[in-house]
Amino acid sequence: MGKTKSERHHWWPECVSVRWADGAGGVTWLLPDGSERRARPDAFGVIGNGHYIKLSRTAGETTVWDQNFEDEFQDADGQFPAVISWLEGLDFKARPDRVRRDRFVPQPATDEQFRRMVESLTSLAIRSPMTREAAVSIAERLRGPLPERERNTLITANLRDMHRRAKQAVSERGKATAILSPDREFVFGDGFYHNMTSGGMAPSSPRILAPLTPRLAVLYAIPRSYTVEPRLSTLVIGADEAEALNKVVQIYAREALFYRADRPKLIEEFQREKHLRFSSSRNIVEEIVHDMPGVPNRDTSLDFL
After folding, report:
1. Domain residue spans in the chain?
2. What's the pTM?
C-alpha cells in the first residue's frame, strides 16, 4: 500500500480565526492553568488529518476505503467570509434601557443567505474538539481507552456522517440572532455551546451559540414552538451579558480559550479541563432563545425540580 500524506485540517477555520488577530497579527491562547501562548491565527485550531478516515491498522498505509472529507468543510469555509461580512452589515441598534425581549431588531434574510449561515455554523460546531470527544465517548465508556488509530477512525467516521445529517436536517429552518458586543470582546474555545454532538440523528431542536469575531456572535436555534418570521434578528448586548456568554464558552471548552484584547477571568469550570455542559435549560443562552421575536416564553412550571 502507498503512504498517506499528512494534512493540516482546521477545526477553527482560518477564514474565521484571522478575524481574531490583534494589531500585531497574533491571537492569544489561554490555557486552564492561566498560562498563555501567542501565534498567528492560522497556527491555532489545527488537527493533523482530522478529517481523514483511515482504516488500515498499520501507520502510513492506505486502503481503498480510506476517505478524506475535508472538502465538505471547505464548502462551508468558502462561504464563511461572505456570511460574516453579511452579518456584520446588518442593522444593530443599542437599546440599553429596554428589557432584552424588546431589544431585538428583525432583519431580512433570503433563503440562500439563511441557509449559508446555518451551514457555516453547523460546520464550526461539528468539527470542534468538543464534538470529536463526544463522537468517541460512548465507545470508550463501554470499552475503556481505545488504541489511537482505532479512536481516530471512529471519530472521523462519526464526524463525516454528523455533518451530512446536520445539513439535511436544519438548512433553512429555525431562528437566528446576530449578537453584537460593543463593550466587551467575546472569547472562542475548543468547545462552545451547541448540541450537535450526537453520532445518530441530528437533534430536533438544535442550539448553537458561536462567537465568530471578538465583537460578533450568532445564536441559532429551532425552538419547539415559534413563528417563522422574523427568522433573523439582531441584538446589541452590554458588557455584563457578554461576560455571561463568555462564561458559557469556558464551561464548554476544555484546553483552549482564544481572545484578542480582553483577557477573560478564568472560572472554575474551565480549570477542571473537561468539556462540561449545562444540565438543564435554565441558562442565559436558553433565555435569549426564548426572548427572540416569535418564540414563546420558556415554560417555568418545572423550575422547582
Report:
1. 8-291
2. 0.86
- What are the pLDDT digits (tens) for 189-225? 999 999 987 655 567 788 999 999 999 999 999 999 9
10 Å Cβ neighbour count for 247?
16
